[in-house]
Amino acid sequence: MKILFITRKYPPHIGGMETFSAGFVQALGSSVTVRALRRSQVHLLWWYPITLVWAVVMARRYDLIHFGDGVLAAMAAVVARLSSRPVTITLHGLDVTYRRWPYQPVLRWALRSVQHCICVSRATAEAVAQRGVIAKRISVIPNGIALEHWPVKTRVEQNNAAKSQPKQLLSVGRLVPRKGIAWFIAEVLPQLTLPLHYHVVGSGPEGERLQQLVNQLKLTERVTLHGQVDESTLHTLYLQADAFIMPNIPVPGNPEGFGIVAIEAAACGVPVLAAKLEGIADAVVDGDTGFLLESRSVLDWITRLQQVLTAAPLAPEHIRAVVAERFSWEAVGQQYSNLFNHLIVSSHVKR
Question: Which of 163, 169, 244, 326 lies in the 20 to 30 Å Cα band around 157?
Fold first, then answer.
């Protein structure tokens, strides 16, 4: 099986899609040839047409051509129409719902033109179906994680943490309204009576507002906004955390496509408490890697947090084992390989 993978997001740049691309290539190994934009996105204007022409010419050398996200859907559609090879695309969430004209009409045409759409969550799959793609041409395969990059806390460390005060809560992500950090700080944190400290890692347009909110509510002793941190510091914060918090709230047109940080936290053995919203529902195995809660339900969040922080119902080893089974790149890569093999065999039959 020879796969051509075309992506506009790839290391050494850092981000969720870059991480996906690196993991995808590692999981599929020598069967994959990569054509990637390895510069900033300002170079997309020239890279896009050049890569389109190159892909059309080179397509016959491969068994299948796979594209990394919805921004490349128009290129994927042209390649699908001009070659005899199956063309597939991974869709992440915002690359499906982005509203600026003429993105949506082009996307609708493009997604109906490729052979198969692979969505990272059921929520993304629903959005793709709403754009006219029939069910048999949609699959859901979650984002994967390289487990070897994430240390796991031991049972001894958990037991020691259970005796320590204050409890440590952690959120990681871009500071935007849909993450619900402001809601959690304003509505939930003041009502939690346990001694605890809330760590927030990330940057974004809500950063200044969050700091103002912390100051206004006199929570500077209970909340630390770390901004961006290096990998070593992030690992330390994960291992110190008693619970990982994803209190997302619905924002029209701006959904959470998956929530890779939920898997990172769980890979470290940290229980995840997350809003049962959009793609997050597929990133948390309810009752195994954490718990899904109603978005904006203060009572739900307080009740579950108190349970997790006092009783520690999920063992780190169990959480890690579930992540390995469901979300390791070994498991996710096998799902991609099985689907690709099926599409390649089907395309041979049709020729």
Answer: 326
Residue 18: in which H helix or E strand, if any? Answer: helix 16-28
Give 162-168 contacts, CB < 8 A, sequence gap 24+. Answer: 162/242, 162/312, 165/195, 166/194, 166/195, 166/196, 166/197, 167/194, 167/195, 167/196, 167/197, 167/242, 167/243, 167/309, 168/196, 168/197, 168/199, 168/240, 168/241, 168/242
List strand residue ranges (DSSP E) for 94-203, in order.
116-119, 138-140, 167-172, 196-201
Contact 203, 179 (CB under 8 A): no
Give me the domain span that covers residue 86. Answer: 3-144+328-350
CA distances from 168 to 165, 217, 240, 290 (A): 8, 19, 7, 16
Q: What is the pLDDT of residues 251-304, one digit of tens each?
A: 987 888 888 999 999 999 999 999 999 999 999 999 999 999 999 999 999 999
Domains: count for the chain: 2
Is pTM beyond 0.70? Reply is yes
Q: CB of 243 within 8 A of CB of 215?
A: no
* Claim to verify: residue 105 and residue 159 sit in the same structural domain: no
Same domain, 290 and 159: yes
Is 232 in contact with 259 (CB distance < 8 Å)? no
CA angle 133, 107, 249 (to 5 degrees): 85
